[in-house]
Amino acid sequence: MDIAFFVWEYPPRVVGGLGTYAQYLTRELVKMGHTVTVLTLNPGNLKTRELIAGVEIHRPLLVDVSRVLPDVVAEDIRRWGPGLDFFAKIFLYNILSASKLINDLIKRESRKFDILSVHDWLSIIAGIITKSELRVPMIFHVHSTEQGRTLGNGSKTIIELEKKGANDADIIVTVSNAMKEELAMLGYPIEKVRVIWNGVDPEKYNPSRVSDEEREQIRAMYGIEYDEFMVLYVGRLAPVKGVDKLIMSMPHVLSKHPNTKLVVLGKGELEQHIKNLVNSLNLEDKVKLRFEFVSEEERIKHYAACDVAVFPSLYEPFGIVALEAMAMAKPLVVGARGVSGFREIVIPSGPRQCGIHINPYDAADIAWGINCILDDPQRGEWMGENGRRRVLEEFTWTKVAERTIKVYEEVLS
């Protein structure tokens, strides 16, 4: 197949899980013999056209439209304040990418495409335009929804864009059965929806590739002794991720396991709030805050160094971080209330258990989940081994690519 792949973040520019997903899936599709042409956002310092690992990438250069955009967008977009600049870049990326595909690649270079693969609202404007112009089947990959990301306080404009994309799409692909249920509740055309889980690279995320010395270096960085437990959170510092409740759980954990330290690794809007929370609870010695977006290599070392990984998300359509920790053979404590792909990824009981499900709204319940693992470190190791085995069985990028192509073939047939 010749696939036009619209995604707003793509390496070397990676903002979150979507960029990681796009990188691995496109490369896997190329390995399978398909042609993949990515159209993505250019922050201004990247090549406008290049080939990386067999994937053709186009990044049209943007211009500044922020002075005129407030006069032509909906009222609720104008209220974004500083975020309006972000919307301006996304809007222009969509228009220029659609034009690039239609006018340059197809009309001038005589290229043909079988499928439009469009990812989240961030690329749906381009998808709607190109489908209308070319009459090529469009697959709308919904990785999350505006209502979910904002816990019900989202932009009406973005919500309408998502709905329009869903209605125009030939097939909607989402990342978990939990998300499929959410889409049904929001009134999406459910007969179009297919579920394809995300993946992880188990060779890159492999505990045997991190030496004992490297693990100790990470622990020493945070002052964690050999006889102390290391609890790890990796991710955006946003309300929807529940990291503030995780910090509030630490007094409960420390009352039972005083030899425990929590490492919080990530960036986001809650940085100051989290810092204030740590200070107000007198946890400066026990909670180590590192407000950085670290490299993948360093993130892997953090997983290797920890004793348990905790992701208490209030809303998590899938959660690639869970797969990363599982691939590194670590036990998990995950939010499992509401829309939670973690419920499907992490088995909470029985002979294949790889973690604990908790109520992310309840700090005491988060602490209970952490303590369950710290109470019996050997059982935690057993859960970690189960987790890596589960990744190898269900969550490789090869399986994701195969399932994706099967859906695309369904559309073409």
Task: Indicate the percent of residues in helices.
Answer: 40-55%
CATH second-level architecture of the largest domain: 3-Layer(aba) Sandwich
Overall average residue pLDDT: 95
Low-confidence stretches: none
Might you state the CATH topology name of the largest domain? Rossmann fold
Count every beta strand, where a strand is a DSSP E run of 2 or more residues: 14
Describe this structure in words.
By secondary structure, the protein is an alpha/beta fold. The chain has helices spanning 17-31, 75-78, 83-108, 121-134, 146-149, 156-168, 177-185, 212-221, 243-256, 271-280, 296-305, 320-327, 342-345, 363-374, 377-394, 397-412; strands spanning 2-6, 35-39, 49-52, 55-58, 115-119, 138-142, 171-174, 193-195, 229-234, 260-265, 287-290, 308-311, 332-335, 355-358. 45% of the residues lie in helices and 15% in strands. The strands form two sheets. Strands 3-4-2-1-5-6-7-8 form an eight-stranded mixed β-sheet, with helices on both faces. A six-stranded parallel β-sheet has the order 11-10-9-12-13-14, sandwiched between helices. Helix 4 (121-134) links the parallel strand 5 and strand 6 (138-142). Helix 12 crosses helix 15.
